[in-house]
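Researcher: I'd like a candidate sequence for this fold, 501 residues long. If you have to choose between options at a position, lean toward the conservative one.
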């Protein structure tokens, strides 16, 4: 009876895993080429790819014309290559994120399967990752650098795992480069790279030295090129501005972040930690388990620390859920190994059946979010976007669209700055304004009141109140509250048309 129950619950569990992967794929394929923002910062990323295609630099002195996002360059260059292959638009950027998410799933499966010799355990880990789609604010295809950084991190982890022959250092060198590329996609990926280097320095110092050298040389070359070509502005955007971000490391804040991460997935979390809690000495003695648990901890730490930033959102949990997926799959394989011990079969068999049931219940609890939340833009969303672009085109001169400057680009106008990166300069997005803000503010004032500026279209009028006191405002009406709202991230859509002439 126990064997039958185990088979039934295992089948149910694997059906859930495959269903989540299929559901994610359906959503992503339905919206990947949607021509408007799925998330409020996608437009700023699109402008950066457009600059690269036009032969312009990413990191320049901030001005009313352009301010970049505070992320490293790799994702934009990879997206530029995709844009050259399939055409300019959000589809190119989202394709990179989707392919990166696929890489995450593949290497979760490979790492678990090779360690546990169990395809079903690997599939479970991949299914756990797929089920985190809604928990990460639908981030698997969003045109942001998170997924590329996650993919390169898990690739680096896999390449340097303890099962590799100690005498062969090629994979170790490649893993150091992978961690460097992850860091050159998003700064927070540095945590995982440094954790991997430290781990190997402790347990296999020769491999650790090779990895550290590979990482350092790779970062040094890439960063050096951008330092020289940007006259040092790359350092300003990647480090000076982020250093002004507000982080809270209070016990209460850390506890709330941990609860926020793991309260939706308590069974995945507890199951993933079971081996290290129940068999600590044996797990520590197993080199591969020890390594993967350490790396999963680094991934979770990356998400946790990222969320301590006052201006962060749930997308930073991508790395955390990647770590939990790895732990959950390894735990399933660990249980399968225990059952081979005949003295434990009577205990382990019903335990496995019960766990399969609990994991299925956990998967079931995550499903309703897919149906309560808008995930695919509608034809009406597309028509509204087309109408906004047509409205911008009608003006003879410049139209300033600070929150959605890609719409100005679509309309054949100069896109000018984006409000989100400019808020990092003004101090609205960090603890204090940058020294360059007074000059940029003066430039914005001149642009707003320039005779060539025919209109300003904004999502959040408060951000430009200093310049529009004597201007006329017209509300943009929509059929309902959800039309043309991004499906991921904060609610943000054009709300006012302002004219100052």
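Model: Candidate sequence:
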């Amino acid at each position: 009876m126990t064997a039958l129950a185990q088979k039934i619950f295992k089948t149910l569990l694997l059906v859930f895993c495959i269903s989540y992967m299929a559901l994610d794929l359906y959503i992503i394929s339905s919206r990947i080429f949607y021509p408007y923002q799925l998330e409020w910062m996608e437009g700023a990323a699109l402008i950066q790819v457009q600059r690269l295609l036009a032969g312009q630099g990413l990191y320049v002195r901030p001005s009313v014309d352009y301010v970049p996002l505070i992320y490293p360059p790799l994702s934009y260059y990879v997206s530029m290559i995709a844009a050259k292959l399939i055409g300019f638009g959000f589809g190119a950027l989202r394709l990179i994120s989707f392919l990166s998410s696929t890489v995450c799933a593949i290497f979760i499966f490979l790492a678990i399967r090779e360690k546990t010799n169990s395809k079903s355990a690997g599939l479970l880990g991949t299914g756990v990752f797929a089920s985190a789609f809604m928990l990460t604010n639908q981030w698997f295809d969003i045109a942001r650098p998170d997924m590329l950084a996650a993919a390169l991190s898990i690739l680096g982890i896999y390449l340097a795992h303890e099962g590799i022959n100690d005498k062969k250092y090629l994979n170790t060198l490649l893993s150091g480069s992978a961690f460097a590329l992850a860091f050159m996609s998003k700064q927070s990926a540095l945590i995982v790279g440094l954790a991997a280097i430290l781990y190997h320095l402790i347990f296999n110092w020769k491999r650790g030295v090779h990895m550290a050298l590979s990482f350092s040389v790779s970062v040094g070359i890439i960063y050096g090129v951008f330092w020289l070509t940007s006259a040092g502005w790359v350092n300003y955007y990647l480090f000076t501005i982020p250093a002004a971000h507000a982080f809270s490391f209070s016990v209460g804040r850390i506890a709330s972040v941990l609860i926020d991460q793991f309260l939706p997935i308590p069974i995945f979390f507890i199951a993933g930690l079971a081996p290290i809690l129940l068999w600590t000495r044996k797990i520590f003695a197993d080199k591969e388990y020890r390594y993967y648990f350490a790396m999963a901890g680094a991934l979770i730490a990356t998400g946790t620390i990222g969320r301590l930033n006052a201006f962060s959102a749930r997308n930073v949990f991508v790395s955390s859920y990647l770590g939990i997926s790895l732990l959950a799959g390894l735990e399933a394989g660990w249980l399968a190994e225990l059952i081979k011990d005949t003295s434990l079969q009577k205990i382990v068999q019903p335990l496995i059946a019960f766990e399969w049931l609990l994991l299925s219940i956990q998967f079931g609890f995550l499903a309703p979010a897919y149906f309560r939340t808008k995930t695919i833009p509608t034809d009406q969303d597309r028509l509204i976007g087309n109408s906004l672009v047509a409205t911008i085109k009608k003006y003879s001169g410049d139209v300033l669209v600070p929150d959605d400057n890609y719409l100005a680009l679509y309309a054949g106008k100069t896109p000018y700055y984006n409000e989100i990166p400019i808020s990092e300069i003004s101090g609205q997005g960090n603890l204090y304004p940058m020294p360059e803000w007074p000059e940029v503010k003066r430039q914005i004032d001149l642009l707003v009141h320039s005779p060539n500026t025919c209109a300003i279209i904004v999502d959040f009028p408060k951000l430009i109140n200093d310049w529009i006191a004597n201007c006329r405002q017209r509300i943009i009406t929509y059929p309902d509250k959800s039309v043309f709202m991004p499906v991921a991230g904060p609610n943000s859509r054009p709300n006012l048309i302002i004219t100052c002439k």
